[in-house]
Amino acid sequence: MEKIRVLIVDDEKPARTRLRQCLEEAPDVEIVGTARDGREALRLIRGLAPDLVFLDVKMPDIDGFDVLDQAGTMKPVTIFVTAFDSHAIRAFEAQALDYLLKPFSNERFEAALQRARQTIHARRTAPAAAPLPVETPKYLERIMLKSEGRTVFLSVDDIKWIEAAGVYVELHVGTKAFLYRSSMTQMAERLDPGRFVRIHRSTIVNTTSIRNVHPRSHGDYTVVLDDGTELVMGRAHRENLEPRLRQLL
Known about the structure:
Elements: E1 4-9, H1 13-24, E2 29-35, H2 38-48, E3 52-56, H3 64-71, E4 77-82, H4 88-93, E5 98-101, H5 106-125, E6 142-147, E7 150-155, E8 161-165, E9 168-173, E10 176-181, H6 184-190, E11 196-200, E12 203-206, E13 210-215, E14 221-225, E15 230-233, H7 238-248
Parallel strand pairs: 1-2, 1-3, 3-4, 4-5
Antiparallel strand pairs: 6-7, 8-9, 8-12, 9-10, 11-12, 13-14, 14-15
């Protein structure tokens, strides 16, 4: 089997050593180089074309995000490695595969490496003559939240409905609700319209959670979710939901 060619990039020697030790445990991995700063990382990416890079975020002169921007079409599969969780949202927007927080466990490292294996294998086994895929919009798959002093990654599939809460939105997940700083318009634009529909100026609903819809007064409707929650759908938003309901039937 062709080995996965890996580049390690970190300005701290202990971090480079830790990554090397973890990678040397994997028989299907070949470490093709290490870099101590962003400029060296760019030179090695362009010269070695690695399959995968473990990339530090905070480095002098050129940081990890600048490295990816300047790598352009040569950008490898990327796993960010950093001690700062504040960069997580930007990392996923940069299309990083994963985000390892230092210090990380062996189990967490292996989970990230396994995701990289699957992604690289899929790229290698894609039919050579296949047409280029049509560019599709990138919608939110996970949301990073602060909850009880911890950083939580919430899958958008788990969100039943969303309501406006001033400069925040409230994400309803089962019996819990989480505040997330965003406007309703921004949320609607970042969620997959095939799954989430705005039914009111202050409400977005996950269509897979809808149990039934029935009319109420003045042309409005009540949308009932599978947990019994009842939401008001304004008549101005009815046309947003009807096509999705027909698809679900």
